[in-house]
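Please complete every field before forwarding. Incomplete forms are returned to the sender.

SECTION A: IDENTIFIERS
Entry label: holo-646
Bound molecule: zinc ion
Molecule representation: SMILES string

SECTION B: INPUTS
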Amino acid sequence: MTTTALDVVGGDRSTVVARINGELRDLSTPVAPEDVVEAVSVDSPEGLAVLRHSTAHVLAQAVQQMFPEARLGIGPPIKDGFYYDFDMPRPFTPEDLEALEKAMVAIIKSGQRFERRVVDEGEAVRELAAEPYKLRLIGSEGGADVMEVGGLELTVYDNVDAKTGQRCWGDLCRGPHVPDTRYIVPNAFKLMRTAAAYWLGDQRNEQLQRVYGTAWPSKDDLRAHLTFLEEAEKRDHRRLGAELDLFSFPEQIGSGLAVFHPKGGVIRRVMEDYSRTRHEQGGYEFVNSPHITKGQLFEQSGHLDWYSDGMYPPMQLDAEIDADGTVRRQGVDYYLKPMNCPMHSLIFGARGRSYRELPLRLFEFGTVYRYEKSGVVQGLTRARGFTQDDAHIYCSREQMAAELDSLLTFTLNLLRDYGLDDFYLELSTRDPEKSVGTDEEWTEATEALRASAEVQGLDLVLDEGGAAFYGPKISVQAKDAIGRTWQMSTIQVDFQTPQRFDLEYQGPDGTRHRPVMIHRALFGSIERFFAVLLEHYAGAFPPWLAPVQVVAIPVTDAHNEYLDSVAGRLRERGVRVEVDTADDRMQKKIRTAQKSKVPYMLIAGDDDVAAGAVSFRYRDGTQKNGVLVDDAITEIVDAIAKRTQV
Ligand SMILES: [Zn+2]
Ligand SMILES: [Zn+2]
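SECTION C: PREDICTED COMPLEX
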């Protein structure tokens, strides 16, 4: 009898696959005594992906039972779930999804084994004659998303009924899978939604129908995931942006281009003002640069070589063409800038620089435009036009380590001031195949970044070989209130741009030296950071950021005048306050203020007027009555000045 991986690892139902000599394989794989075999649990990321992908097989089987004319696309696991693409005569309806879930439960309960079978290309072509998309994958390398092919062998996975031994269904796939369908928990998976999708993501290809699903080790895990999604949906910045009247994306302007409404404008201004102040204190100098430039600049910087896909097409200016079409003067191509770096480098190079000026830190709220495909544009987090809090630091190599160190501290402290405080760091290191700069420079910069990260005492994740070709990078990943990770700040060392722009400074020894350049954006972009904060706070911004900090609510019209004077005093102290003098009843006004997530309400009736007091109501619904106006003002002004979180 042959020994299988399952025999070696034993394992209960939480073991879904094995790692054999480092590779994920089915538990039924025969193993030799010298093989290193490890159990992979459904609770690990790899095990979970196998569970989800196996569930995708069951979905595909159910689809072909219900729609025999459906043709199979691909069905990989993805974050939190899986999808499968089908060529269908019509799109799926919500009723279809319900019926498919039932059919899937029946398949799961019938306990079909996933049996691996190696086929040669001729057999595969014959077997898959009715599956044109699968056929196209044979002989291809497959992409990162493609589960079907890859590796040395072509394999088909047959679904075999445990009792009858009959083959029920099969799919071209490289695997691995769970041993049988009963490993999938019937009430721990769900079909989530459908979408149109192009074959292999290319819009020149056929349009297929994609079904997204999610699958978990237990019913409780599924429930927790659905609750999380609901919470994320409530916090969706696009939804809150409309509800709280903060910003919009007018169709007339175009996809990915936002306008900020007055309340969003206030938040944005406060964010910028505070950042400006901190940068001023941090020794940055403020510069400005235009939004468009001749193409020549981006040739020099290299962007036109390696970034042109992300740039808007050029506009040709200053051409002279006669009525008969004779070109008298060739035009010049101008581009919208996708990055500010080349312009800042021109500022550095505008005159001779001395070592005494270094580190030179140039800061700009620089608006850039990047061409994102319409499919990936997403609210403020992935827009086509946005403003970076961008700075470029030029320093000597000797200064680099200390500069990176203080920069990372500066970055984390700034993010903390905005209310994010759960971080980890990611260090992207050199890909030796493609990089400029010497070994020595890379080692020095990478070690400096690593050392500065270690000083912070935060988890450091290595992104081996993930750096851009021009230098290593550290990025700050922040967790929000519901545990989602957002990539925030990036700090990028660059050995290349100073070369391309021939930047130099005069050293203490009187000779010329090449500076090191550090790129850094702490918010990433104001728009994106705005969205992250909006979702983090679910719209309930801390007092210092709230667009309206106080709403004053009179019990009746008779108290309007009194609250006007209180509001006047608050305004004198710089507080953003409104008096609600609408025709509504007081309770309605309180609800309105709650809905707009105002931090403080000051309510006044006859007793309050007589006592020079107010009822002080907080966003969480708690209320203190008979608070002297002076005390209320002091409390509010203090909370704003201290940037308290509530
Ligand atoms: Zn598969
Ligand atoms: Zn830059």
